Amino acid sequence: MVDIDDAPQKIAEKIRGGRTALGIEFGSTRIKAVLIDDTYRTIASGDYQWASHLEDGLWSYSKEEIWKGLQSAYASMADDVYNAYGERLTFIGHIGFSAMMHGYLAFDKAGELLVPFRTWQNTNTSEAHEKLSELFQYNIPERWSVAHLYQAVLNKEEHVGKVDYITTLAGYVHWKLTGKKVLGVGDASGMFPIDPTTKTYEAEFLKQFDALDEIAEQPWKIEDLLPTPLVAGTSAGELTAEGAKLLDPSGALQPGIVLAPPEGDAGTGMVATNSVRVRTGNVSAGTSIFAMVVLEHKLKALHPEVDLVTTPAGDLAGMSHANNFTSDLNAWVGLFGQFAAASGYPLDPGSLYGTLFRAAIADDVDSNCGGLINYPFRSGEFLAGLSEGRPLFVRGPEANMSLGNFMRAQLFSAFSPVKIGMDIMTKDEGVAVDSLVGHGGIFTTPKVAQKILAAAFNTPIKVMSTAAEGGAWGMAVLADYLWHTNEDKSNLADYLDGRVFAGASSTTESPDSDDVAGFEEFFERFRKGLPIEQAAINAVPLETK
User: Fold this and answer.
1) Which Gene3D superfamilies match (predicted)?
2) Whole-prediction pTM
3) Per-position b or e across 294-323, b if 16+ CB within 10 A of its CB
4) Which of 442, 445, 461 is nearest to 508 (CA)?
5) What is the pLDDT of residue 387?
6) Is the pLDDT of residue 4 over 50?
7) Angle, CA of 321, 323 and 327, to the nearest 5°
């Protein structure tokens, strides 16, 4: 029997009444739009595939790609609404944008982009990272916007004197649609350090940065270049007439819709996994991967391997972030898919991934991958000390080469870089974790990635029924939160517990002792063999001639 509340006519009424929220997230390989109703169900979605490209040796997406992708994802979602419910989408209750964090989008006074968008994937900012981390005694990762800005200053790039505004990808899209130079506090914390007490930029660090000799020569002060941080639940402006046309060139969507603060993918991942409360954590796995824990207090020491960012509510969180995760894995799965098709037995993606993933935990695999090693580095990886990346598979002549061991090595290697920073938090700093939740497409195949992650971190891993929804759904939830900030117990953690996840189902995988021991053996080989990766970087050109 179909629940009457799920009937298309009931959802159509919600769409007409604006009882909806839209989240659009710019991921590394996909722009996804998710429309939810007032019970947090996805009622329509759309997406657009894209990929970064090298421009003058730096990873980038063009301005044209950004807007083409946004419009295509929105149009796909709007078509989904019409096909399912017979409604032309003219109004949405609230909208929110999110995107991959960090990077460098710099504009002049006329609002023109000064240099091509420099994404988080770029690791050409090591000098800035080292100098700023030492200055602040606070880790400033290579990916952070202020590191990109300072490196441009150190490099004496011609454009730096013209900079009037810098922001992230989510902040850029939000600005062009609303005219507001604001940013969710979680995304802002990946541009410049945030004070968790004031929920804005660390005042002393701003002064220290401006006092640097190279910065004092500039015609600007850092605070004047940065977007204004906003906590979740704060109105972040309205969709302008120009913005509505930019988002929906068909002209159907009307202006005046209130937008949520634009957030980063770390924040939307925390929301999608209900991990914004102190001592909770999540592992968000996609093209990159990060493990986060909401902290009870600041860390005792400076650790370059751990980023300090905030939740969308402004609470401090420790993050172990690895640039590389699924790119190499997807390439190998694609190769097996080509073989299946060539053999006359093509497999759909779900069957292909499911078959290969399940091989990694079959009874006949070696817990330590049988001596196989894989390095998934498509781009540079700070946690591994690599300025560039070269995907690499290695085995000794006596290694046990089997499909199960191969796929297990692929999955073990994908989780290995992020384990470095996580071990520092839990083992060196004694950070307590009450729950750790995994989310992302890799957890769609039941049990496999969850079981391997439990072995990597030696802690139970929960996967919720919303695990595959991802950041776009999390951003839609943050947009919906705008309606509930005046309620009793209106903080974000209580809102998620009491409304969004009250009836959510989940599964938990506890670590298996053999898997834990096997992962530690693999991890030791992985770290010991890193000079092989460096040799590949020296020997294999970055770009195909």
Assistant:
1) 3.30.420.40
2) 0.82
3) bbeeebeeebbbbbbbbbbbbbbbbbbbbb
4) 461
5) 87
6) no
7) 130
The CA angle 233-194-477, to the nearest 5 degrees, is: 25
Nearest-angstrom CA–CA distance, 384 and 374: 13
Q: What pLDDT was estimated at residue 468?
A: 60
24: which strand partners?
33, 97
Taken in order of first residue, the domains within the chain and their CATH numbers are 273-322+420-507 (3.30.420.40), 324-412+510-537 (no CATH)
Q: How far apart are CA 214 and CA 220, in angstroms?
A: 12
Whether pLDDT at 313 is above 80: yes
How far is Cα 162 from Cα 281, in angstroms, rounded to an integer?
40
Phi, psi of 227 (to 5 degrees): -70, 155
The DSSP output letter for 98 is E
Tell me which residue of 370, 453, 372 sits closest to 416, measured CA to CA: 453
d(CA 435, CA 249): 44
pLDDT for 324 beyond 80 = yes
The answer on pLDDT for 509 being more than 70 is: yes
Give Cα 49 to chain centroid, integer Å.
16
Position 482: which residue type?
L
CA distance 473 to 242: 25
Bridge-based pairing of strands 105-107 and 263-264 is unpaired
Question: pLDDT tens digit string along 143-186?
Answer: 999 999 999 999 999 999 999 999 999 999 999 999 999 999 99
Strand 105-107, strand 194-195: pairing: unpaired
